Structures are given as C-alpha cells and as structure tokens.
Amino acid sequence: MAHEETVYDALGNAQEDHGHWAFGTGFDEPLAGVDTTVPDGIDPAELGEYCLMLGDDALVLAQRLTQWITASPELEEEVAVANVALDLLGQARLLLARAGSVGVLGRSRERATESIPDEDALAYFRDADEFRCTALVAAPNGDFAQTMARLLVAATVRLAVFARLRDSRDPVLAAIAAKGVNELAYHRDHAARWVLRLGDGTDESHRRAQAGVAAVWPLLDDVFTATDLERRLTDAGVAVDPSTVRDEVHGVLTEVLERATLTVPAWPADAAPRGRLGEHGPELAELLETLQSLARQHPAATW
C-alpha cells in the first residue's frame, strides 16, 4: 500500500526535512513570488517596527481567542473562534517574518538560537515591553458577549487598515493585506452577527452585550493615535495612519450597535499610543507567559 503523507509527516518534513515547531510549517508559502526588496527611501528598521505593530496585534488577539477553546457556548462556535484565531495567527506569522527579514529582532536574538526562524524568535523570545500591540487586543476576554464586542471592534479597525494597505509601496505588506481582507471581513461579520443576536435577544443577553460594549469602548482611546513612525511611513506610501480610518470604523460600529438595540457609548478622547510604544499592563505579561512557556523551556525543540 502506498504511503500517504499525514499532517504529522508534513510537519516533520517541512523546512527541508528539518522538523520544527514554527507556525504553519508544512503549508504552502502564501508570499511566493512577491518582491521582498525594501522600497527605496524606506528605513528597513522602521518598516520592521511597523510590521511588529500589526503582527503583535494579530498574535495577541489570536492567543486571547484560543482561551475560548473548550469554553465556547456551543461546539460550532468553538470551531468558528478557533478558525478566526488561526487566520490571525497566519497574519502574525507573515508580518513577524517580514519584520525579521529586515533585521528586527530586538533582545530576542540574545535568547533565541540560530535554528529558530525569525518569526518564532519574535513571537516567543520577546518580553512584554518589546511587544507593540494595543490594549484593545491585550485586555482580558471577559464573558462571551464582551469577547464578541472586542472582536467586532478589532476586526473593524484591522479591516479598514488592511483595505488601504493593499496599496502599500511595500509589496510584502500589500500582499499580506490582500490576503487578509477576506479573512477580516469574515471576522467582523461573524462578530457582528453575535452582537446583533445578543443585543436584540433576551433581557439577560442584552444586558451582557451592553456591558461588554461598555468594557471594550475605553480600549479605543489610543487605537486611532498614530506614532511618529506610522506618520512617516504613511507619508512614504507604506503604512496607514490609523486616524484616517476613524470615521469609517465609527460608522460601522454605530450601525451594528444601533441595529442590535444597544446604546453606543461615548467615544473616548484620544490618548498617547501606549501599546505601540511598549507600555502595557500586567495582563499582557500574564498572557505571554502562557504563550511562550514551552518555547522558552525547550528553545531548540523540534517535532
């Protein structure tokens, strides 16, 4: 009987027969044929830092969503949440790989071994203050209604940014965005359906949905505030200034909440982009302890 390759064989045979525990090993390269040259006039370090911002948002939110595995309200939703997390994990891998390819490793190089791909070193061997994610994705889940409210907000913001990044002067960012917009549209719509279902449901589901929205809204205070780096890269045609998507995001979220018979909270005043600058609460360090523990205990492990 002919041998048929299993998923375990694919993992073991990836990377030229060198087993690895990296994200997505054994799968086709989605950026095959894309020009990876850094555009003229762009500082590679700044491009890498921007990729970290986008990649860290995806990685941390994916980890938050995996906390619902075995805890979701129904089996079908458990699969859906897992698929959303996998989409985000795939985006994180591509973005962190781009950051690593232009030389961004930070202090992780001191702790990582040469056998670990850059995206894994960046995911597993940076401390919390080296992460560039926003508080919107780092905050604890809360109950299911709060998780769906957070996913709705995060996916709406990210989709608006990625839709514009398809025109980025960096071919890699443009390709990642082109791949990600369909995924993010599904994430947004899936969360919106749950917010509608809960908000316009029973008295209890309405109460929980409103409380979830109230808990998530303050986390928007720094989401639309651009760093100096984001402004420079936006002027250079590479990045997207988050302030330019504010009106679109506000419009989408207002429409969903009103249809769900929920009160739209007051929009928070703009604040400094703390997360983008590496300033985080203790909840991120706690999350990373779980995410990174196995890799740090066995930094050269292979499957």
UniProtKB/TrEMBL annotation:
InterPro entries noted in UniProt: Aromatic_CoA_ox/epox, Ferritin-like, Ferritin-like_SF, PaaA_PaaC, PaaC
Q: Tell me where on the tree of life, at the top rank, the source sits.
A: Bacteria
Pfam families per record:
PaaA_PaaC
Q: Which Gene3D superfamilies did the record assign?
A: 1.20.1260.10
Cross-referenced NCBIfam families, in alphabetical order? Answer: PA_CoA_Oxy3
Q: What is this protein called?
A: Phenylacetate-CoA oxygenase subunit PaaC
